[in-house]
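Q: I'm writing up a methods section and want to include an example of the input and output format. Could you take the sequence below and give the corresponding predicted structure tokens, formatted cleanly so I can copy it straight into the document?
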Amino acid sequence: MKISVSYLSSKYEKRKTLELIEATTADYIHVDLMDGGFVPKKNFTIDEVLELFNDCEKPLDIHLMVFDPILYIDELAKLNPEYITFHVEATKDVVKTIEKIKEHGIKVGLSIKPNTDLYELMPYLTLIDLVLIMSVEPGEGGQEFLLESPHRLQELLKVREENHLSFQIEMDGGINDETILLVPELDIVVSGSFICRSDHYQEQIYKLLGK
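A: Here is the clean output for your methods example:
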């Protein structure tokens, strides 16, 4: 299991938080971008994201919580992220957005809200590299893990196996050293406040990994 650390729910200012994450064994930095439309909260402009993450050494795992995500791709591609993930609910042209991300040689993730039927993902699973299951309502850190999330993971694992697909499965929201035990089959887990509100980032990562 790989660890993607979300830096927003932190005791420290953003640059200090990123420095602390960079010093750990985390696999990715999870970058949330919210537009105030698709989710109620707005956090950064594109320019702020480009400035903040320009010098990061760890691979970036970008999660777009925005309407019309295709409008953001060209600029975000300048950061050369590992993944750009957008929501199936956020655009009427999912395939065009997938193709736009692939044009830049970036892996494509597709995310789904807790109340959206997994069936909405099915037409696109052969086209993407990652599915991000939201285990809280997107847009706000520190929420409690939704207990139906492990069931959604099991459904998706079954679909992947039965259709011989290779996409990674990631989960985001309310992940800590207890809730992670409910979803041990995940390929990537996103954790924010559990790590970044502590004084010992690496220790918290080890707890997630059962070390």
